[in-house]
Amino acid sequence: RARGAALVAARRGGHITFHGPGQLLAFPVLDLRRRRLPLRAYVAGLEALVLRLCRRLGLGTARALPPPFTGVWMGDSKLCAIGVHCGNHITSHGLALNCCTDLTWFEHIVPCGLEGKGVTSLSHELGQHVAVSHVLEPFLDSFQEVFDCTLVTSEEPG
After folding, report:
1. What are the site positions for Lowers pKa of active site Cys (predicted)?
2. Were both Cys, which of 28, 47, 152, 157 would link to 64 (CB 3.0–4.6 Å)?
3. Are 24 and 72 in contact (CB under 8 A)?
4. By C-alpha distance, which of 91, 74, 90, 72 is closest to 82?
């Protein structure tokens, strides 16, 4: 609270995390039954799309770890956290990719409940400022490729 943060409970997998400026937050709403996709395969798909994005950006050493770990990692530091909820086969919540996030926020929590693990960002790993706006288009391209879909945007309400 002293730093201006609030604690919000959420119904999703995973433990405590931070959401704030400099993160690409993606909360896809999908009907997994319609896609014939088990929940674990969906989580693996989210990891695959971030790994695909990382490769596009030149981070070939990014990796996913086997369950029970989720997300995308650079060494022992988490680059992208994943926490999903699924009710009646409909997904909510999703992922938080650290682009140019102030990583000191994570010093006040045990990110994802993982003692002894670090947190990193695209900016830190690439040695240059990487804004969310810089990765948004390649992220959406990766999403379409991994989930074999076409994303449609609309400027009109409804």
Report:
1. 78
2. 47
3. no
4. 72
